[in-house]
Amino acid sequence: MRARTDRRKIVEALNGYLFISPWLIIFIIFSLISLGYAVYLSFTEYNLLRPPRWWGLEGYQRVLEDELFLAKALPNTFKYVLIVVPIQTFLSLVLAFAMDQNLRFQRFFRTIFYLPSVTSSVVISLIFIWIFAPQGIFNQITGLTVNWLDDPRTAFYVIMGMNIFTTSGTLMLIFLTGLQDIPLAVYEAAEIDGANGIQKFFYITIPMLRPVIFFVVTVGVIGCFQVFDQIYVMTAGGPLDSTTTITYLIYKWAFRDTRIQMGQASALAVILTLIILAVTLLQRKVIEGSGSGTER
Amino acid sequence: MAVTTQAQTRVYEQTVFFDRLRKYLFFAMLAFWAVLSVAPLYFTLVFSFKPVADIYTPPIWAPIPFTLENYQTILGTFQLFPRWVWNSVFISVIVTIFRVLFCAMAGYAFARIEFPLKNFWFNLLLISMMMPGVVTLIPSFLIIGPGLIRGGIDLGMFKLPTGFGLIDNPWGVILPGMADAFGVFMMTQFYKSFPKELEEAAMMDGSGRWGTFFRIVLPISQTRLITLALLTFQGAWNNFMWPLLVLRSPEQFTLPIGLQWFRGEYYTLYSVILAGSIFNTLPILIIFFVFQQYFVRSIAATGSKEG
């Protein structure tokens, strides 16, 4: 009897591993080994031609002394996150709130709003290049004569605007699901207590939505810190490095420069990971901490 | 007494007025955003039907003069274009099939089968979901291509390669995409909330884990599998950064890579590029409209489950 249950347990364990093995193999190779190797590479000098040479912290030091990183990529990336994340979060929340009012054509709107997010980043970038060309539709409609993507003062804002526009639809849908999960009874109770619309929004909707807000902001932050496609296609980091972000710089150092620097690029990738981790943790504290007094 | 009622009526009228005003405001806002959302696609379509020379000239709202020239150019003159379409289809379909199958298998095992270190692997999976993709970009590239250790590991008799040597090969794009943490997580959550009775009945009848999985579990998880398949297909179809690194020669390009390369080569033919963009957008739009409910469901699954 004992032997039989043991055998069944072994068979179960074997089956378990067989079931997860395809995923596990890919996970081990492309996540675990990759991550370990990225950390190792960040301490080396590696140009693909000769084997990686141990460098210690030299790579990190070079990153932290690099003009392009310090003056452009780092501030640009933070600027991007600090502008895009709040606007897209606010905008999608407002849109979701408007959608939740049981207006007509709700389904129609929901479909239309999702369109920009199914279109590929490359295609949407190509379309925007053309819309914001000197003689493009945007200038034609507004009567302006700005060369949007060749001007270091405007190029980055066009990219930001485009990304706010493409992601807000998806985020709106996430908020909408969150809003519809809030039980009506809570609102009704507040109404009996004499709460008006604005009070209901700030004292019920926002606190009840806190986990969803955290999710949307986290997804937004992680995505924004890694913005690449749009920058590669629209400006390639220019004009005058005004759209060079950390991810673009990693790509540039590792794959594009005449002097390939995989070690230094890996050091920057590790730094970026630490930044994202720190920001996510901080934000969790802020979003979850701020409401702990009013909740429960 | 009369005064109070009057005041009450006034308050009531005000409320109704503001309610209505608010509704109109919200509606106007939604309508405005809807116009914005459609505009880029609409303009692309309009200008893909206009002559190359008219790319910046009015009228901008309608395809006048109308021509099919751009589509003829892209399909007839640029022989690589149909290949890009084919490459995109091939890579996206293969990635979708494998990812859905592998994620379902792993998700099922995490939800239902007891095996050693299960929680350890599942926790690692959860942690990996927080890890930004860019950190593994360079090593993953080395693994797909030249290898982590140059020349491989010397074992005396033969050399063990540390890279797949798949640069400029569609399988180099496919391989890392065949499974991912999010898909496994999604399927695990799904199978956890799923009644066990059907599987148990099948197992009682002598069906093993594998038979049960393929004959009972997969068919009843159809809806969730389609959702995952759609998300995967959309991601693979639109993927840019990874194929950009792996695929080097124009014959191997996928549509997004080809389109942006095209722009560099033939900047003046912008209408042709817009026509090409339609080939990248239209299939995904059709899929989106046909399977709309699943897309919305996927958002619900990602949004509320993790939140």
List keywords for this structure.
heterodimer; A: 296 residues; mainly alpha; two-stranded antiparallel sheet; 13 helices; 75% helix; globular; B: 307 residues; two-stranded antiparallel ribbon; 14 helices; 2 strands; 72% helix; flat
How would you briefly describe this protein structure?
The complex is a heterodimer of chains A (296) and B (307). Chain A has 296 residues and is mainly α.
Helix tally of chain A equals: 13
Q: What oligomeric state do the depicted chains represent?
A: heterodimer
- Strand content of chain A is under 5%
Strand order of the largest sheet of chain A: 1-2
Provide the low-confidence segments of chain B as ranges: none
Verbal overview:
Chain A has helices at about 1-40, 60-65, 65-100, 105-120, 120-130, 135-140, 155-180, 185-190, 195-210, 210-225, 230-235, 245-255, 260-290, and strands at about 45, 55. With about 300 residues, chain A is mainly alpha-helical. Chain A starts with a helix and ends in a 6-residue tail after the last helix. The relative contact order of chain A is 0.12. Chain B is mainly α and about 300 residues long. At the A-B interface, helix 1, helix 3, helix 4, helix 5 and helix 6 of A face helix 1, helix 3, helix 4, helix 5 and helix 9 of B.
SSE inventory with pairings:
The complex is a heterodimer of chains A (296) and B (307).
Chain A: H1 2-41, E1 44-45, E2 53-54, H2 58-65, H3 67-99, H4 106-118, H5 121-131, H6 137-142, H7 155-181, H8 184-192, H9 197-208, H10 210-225, H11 229-234, H12 246-256, H13 262-290
Antiparallel strand pairs in A: 1-2
Helix pairs in contact in A: 2-13, 3-7, 3-10, 3-12, 4-7, 10-13, 12-13
Chain B: H1 2-48, H2 69-77, H3 80-112, H4 118-130, H5 137-144, E1 153-154, E2 159-160, H6 170-177, H7 181-192, H8 197-204, H9 209-220, H10 222-238, H11 241-246, H12 255-265, H13 270-290, H14 292-306
Antiparallel strand pairs in B: 1-2
Helix pairs in contact in B: 1-13, 2-13, 3-6, 3-7, 3-10, 4-7, 8-9, 10-13, 10-14, 12-13
